[in-house]
Each structure stands twice: as structure tokens, then as C-alpha cells.
Specification:
Elements lengths: L16 H4 L5 H8 L5 E5 L5 H14 L8 E5 L2 H13 L6 E4 H16 L6 E2 L3 H11 L6 H16 L7 H8 L7 H18 L1 E2 L1 H14 L1 H10 L2 E4 L7 H11 L5 E5 L14 H4 L1 H4 L4 E5 L1 E2 L4 H12 L4 H4 L5 E2 L8 E7 H17 L7 E5 L5 H10 L4 E3 L9 H16 L12 H10 L13 H22 L5 H14 L8 E5 L8 E6 L15 H15 L2 E12 L34 E3 L30 H6 L11 H18 L9 H10 L4 H5 L6 H15 L12
Parallel strand pairs: 1-7, 1-8, 2-3, 2-6, 4-5, 6-7, 9-10, 11-16, 11-17, 12-14, 12-15, 13-14, 15-16
Helix pairs in contact: 2-3, 5-10, 6-7, 6-9, 10-11, 10-12, 15-23, 17-18, 19-22, 20-21, 25-26
Amino acid sequence: MTAATHFPLFPRVPETADAVLDGLDPEQREVALALHGPVCVLAGAGTGKTRAITHRIAYGVRAGVLPPASVLAVTFTNRAAGEMRGRLRQLGAGGVQARTFHSAALRQLQFFWPKAIGGPLPRLVERKVQLVAEAAARCRVRLDRSELRDVTAEIEWAKVTQTVPADYPAAVARARRDAPRDPAEIGQLYAMYEQLKGERSVIDFEDVLLLTVGILQDRHDIAEQIRGQYQHFVVDEYQDVSPLQQRLLELWLGERDSLCVVGDASQTIYSFTGATPDHLLDFRLRHPRATVVKLVRDYRSTPQVVHLANGLLNQAGGRAADHRLELISQREAGPEPVYTEYGDEPAEAEGTARRVRDLIAAGVPAGEIAVLYRINAQSEVYEQALADAGVPYQLRGAERFFERQEVREAGAALRGAARFGANDSLLDGADDLPAQVRAVLSGQGWSSEPPTGSGAVRDRWESLAALARLAEDFAAARPGATLSDLVAELDERAAAQHAPTVQGVTLASLHAAKGLEWDAVFLVGLTDGMLPITYAKTDEQIEEERRLLYVGVTRARVHLTLSWALSRSPGGRASRVPSRFLKGLRPGSGSRAGGYAAAGGIERGGSGGPAGAGARRRPRGPVRCRVCGTTLTEAGAMKLLRCEDCPSDMDEGLYERLHAWRGERARELGQPAYCVFTDKTLMAIAERVPSSGGELAMIAGVGTRKLDRFGADVLAICAGEEGVTEPTED
């Protein structure tokens, strides 16, 4: 489910086919009623494309036009497929197949392999990188870890573009693609990789599509059997289709035209994987009689956010830009986007964390906030800053909710309680459904208060807390529901991968954020060289980077903050400039330096405390290791003022006293320990043993707020005394 799509959690199933159409706008209704012939839906961000196509399928099923078993809806992620299955179930069309391309192909391959080839289907290789490493060793080519990953990605690209090893160098030249190594060498590694797979009788993820295509091309009887099963196709995110996926779709269709595709060329951001918007843009050429519907009413974002998104695309070039959609916000006015400039990256992270904390204090749930960046390597400094600010967060990309061990165990416990609840002492005194669920989860180690720290323990607690919240929502939506009813709901959601949302600020790359939305979005690190990324050289690559920023902007419903830092580390040379994509959009963008705070929601971010706190600012100049003198760039090392592997002169006794004090204060305040100080901050204090507030303020992780709140205690402990001040409230 998207981060917070606003529709009822447990809606009533529409009583009639016509009732399925209730609430659709005129264009969405056109989509739902277009049940025959080829249909192309051009849907801008936030315009309700998933709503339109699921209501189309459900209306067709409920009206008797589309037999549910004859419909195959395909998309690109398990999450999106799960959301589609969940919505179809809520609309009374639960028998429809909604899968990813790979999932649908794998099912067909497993079923038809014995008939087409004979014997069992070869095993699916789990870690492609290991096999690529072996191929490199055989070819006597040395690859480090990052090169291994890059070469593996090149092999994947070659396969989805249906390029064989011998043709790889020519294909790279035609595509004007920057290969990570000599194309001839990669072609050799690709060939050896394929040879190794053959020797070991294994296949990879891309082979699932290639082999299915091969069987359908060679065995017309099998192709006809599949076409007899599936007669109506819906493809979501059609701008992301690769040539191989398009070929598979054509083989599924045969000579028929019962196809509905949905996409937005302005959200094409995966060309590095072989995706191309050409199939979407050429749809009318291939299907001259197609019905084309454009969705431009944006229900997600405020007019201010939409204005910025439209402005980004108005500056775009290329074929996708020629087909851009001008969005029209359907929401009330909101705050202007805020543009903030910082002196360095740690200051940007700390400033972002402060703003996040302020939003939460103002009533915005943590789960409705996201911090989005260009590459995953940027996450660490934001993880640290949010932890220092006492803000819970979650990294995007964890395993699916219902596949987590703690969720499976909790489901089994709930199932047992539902079956034997009358004889279960655990449920004594639990009067209503939420109380019963909390009682069962407590037996799984869950408590009403989150654990201190982060990591696996915190992740487990968040998963169980999400189940507890789901039980409360379920009971509110269906008064009188029993534990058995909830278990049945969980089983259906597990089958559909329709997960509740785990609370916490989301940290994610812009690519990982595609398809999600939040009330508040922070787009960080917006400098030339990061967005667009340094290695984007051609016009096509630059335009894809612009589309990536467009995707980031359109994730925000109400609050949008865009920020950048002029240098990487405190005291570094201020050589960076804001992203060229912001030129002409942010007030004052003609000049990098001046007057951002004066107008248009622009603010100038600082690199330390508030004005007048000059004594607490961190020193300027490059941050160097105090042991070996190396310039430090990693957030953790800068906090310690030494390389991670350089020897520590930490006072172990002082560290233990600080650690014990932190635990006591956390218990007094009812907060996780890291909300007081992180382990790294305590280590830095124990190494530097500050004797004054100014010295303590110099340590990263000790901001003005924490200095005022905890400084007296910490300095007393460092002086050999005990901290005795009373806990204060924010």
C-alpha cells in the first residue's frame, strides 16, 4: 500500500456494478467504461491511475463483461501488485490475477517446462553477483565489489534488451551507454557467465522472461493454451516496459487487442535497466483505433507543489517532454515549497532532522514524512541526524511485511488464540478486539513502549506495533468483529501482500520512492553533480535526471522542502552550486548567494545553532583525523574526529558512567536511549572529555537543545561528579 493513500481502510464492497463507478471523476469514469479494444491511459502523478484501472477491471468483472479468471494485470513491483490485489478485493473482484511480469512468467514457465523441454525447471540462482565473480576469475579479470555490481547490472541490461554476448559492444555503442569497463571485456564476462549457468543447470531472473518468450515463440500449442486462459490484459507503469517485457506481452496477446496500458512518460526513470517510454508513446501507431484517456486532475498535491512540478517539466526537452501532462491540482492551497541552502552536508542533515521533528510536533505523523536522496550512500548522515534528534525512521527496501519472521510468528499466535481463546489465560480481562490482540502480541515480546536503540529489536517492535494499530482500525471499522475475523483479514492481506504501514520517517532513494506519497517530503542534496548525477552526460541522461526530480517533487502532498549544501564537510570549500533544474523555479535562483530567506518560502539554512550562538559553532576548515591527519568525510568518523580504525584514547570508565546515566535519563523521559545521545556521541564525549559548554557543543550530535537539556549532567560526569539535574520537558 502506498505510504498513506487516503481511502477508507475497510470500505464496503460496492453492491452493484454501477456502484463501482461512484466517486470517479469524468476521465476516470471514461477509463472504467472503456472495456473493449485497445485503451491507453496517460496518467500524471497523483491523478488516481491505480483507482481508475482497478475500477475498470472491477466494473468489467461485476458487469459480466470480463470473467475474472480471464484477466491478467501486470505491473513492476510486488508492492504495486499487492496494492492492486487489495483494491480489487475491496471492489468485489478478488479472482483477478495481478502480478509482476516476472511472477506471471515464472508461473507459466514452471507449469509448461516439463511439457516444452522435459524434466524439472532449472534452479533459480539466488546471488547473480557470485556467479559473475566466478566468471571474472575464469577470465582472469580482477573486479572489486563495486565493479562486480556494475558488471552484473550490465549483464542484466543486455538480457532485457535481448542482446547476446557477442553483440554487447555494438549494442552499447548504439545506445550511447557508458560501460563500466571495456565493452569487449564485459562481453567476454557475459559469455563466461552464461557458460557457467549452463554448466550448473541454473537460470537467473532475466532468463525467466527469456525462456518464457522462447517457449511461446516455438510452441504455438502452449501459446494458444495461455491465450485461452488470459484474454484481457492490463499493464500498469507502461513507460517502464523493457523490450523483453514488451515481446512477452505481444506473445500473450497474439492477434487480439484487448489491452489497457497506463503510464506517464514524464516518470520514466529506469532506462538504465532497459526501460523505455517508446512503447507508451508509440501505442497509437501500433493501435490506430485505440481509446486514449488523459488523467490530469491531481488529487495528491497542493497547487503549490503542482506548480513546481509543472515548472520542472516546462523546462524539459526530448520526446517524453513533448508528451508531458499539465497537472491541475484539486486540493486546497498549502504552504509554498521551501528552498534551503546549508554550508555543509552534516549541517543539511541536522537542519532536516530539526524540521522533521518540528513537523511531528505540529501533528504530522512520522509515517507521513520522507527524506529522499539521489543515491543510497547519502542515507547514513540522515540516519545519524534523525537518531540524534530522537526521530524514528525506517529505511525503504526491507523485506515484505508479511514475510518478516516476527509477523509470521504473531500471525500463528493470533490464529491459535482465535481457535482456543476461551481456554487461553492470556486473554483474561481483554474485553475488546484491540485488547485481545495486544495481549497476544505481548506474549510475542511486544510492549506498549518502544525499545531503546535501533536495529533488529526496534524493527521487530515496529512490525508488531503495526499489527496492533491494524487491529484498532479493524475494530473501529467493523464493530463486533472477533479475533477470528481479524485473522481472516490478515490471511487475505498476506495473500495479497496488502501490508499496514510501519510508522517512522522514511529514508529512501528517489528511485525507491516511485509510486509512494507522503504529507511532507524533504528532497536533499540537490546540487549539480548529484542531481543531475555526475555521470549523466548525454541530453537523454540529463532529462532522465530531471524526471527523477519531478518524481521526487510529486511524492509530496502538502509540505515540500528542497535543500542543498555548498560543501561536503564542515569547513570545506563552498564549491557546489544548486541543481540546474531549480534555475528559474526558486526565487533568487539567478544568484546563488543572496536573500533566500526574504521571499517565496526560501530559507537560508545554518550550519550550527541559532544566530548569536557563535561560541557554539563548529570550527571551519577541513575536518581531519586527530590521530593520523587524514581528511574525514564519513559522518561517524567526523563525530569522533578520527578514522574508525585509528586507535581510540577513550576513557572507558567515563564511557561506562555516561552510558549508565543515559539509560537512567531515557527511562525518566520515557524515550529510547538514542534520543538522549547515540553511542557514537557518548564515545566522542568520553574521548574528548569536555570541561565547558563550548567544548561540549563542538561535538557533533550535541546541538543547542541537547546542550541546554543535558549539558550540566554531562559536564558533571566528565568532571568526576554525578549528574543530578531534574529531567525537563520540551
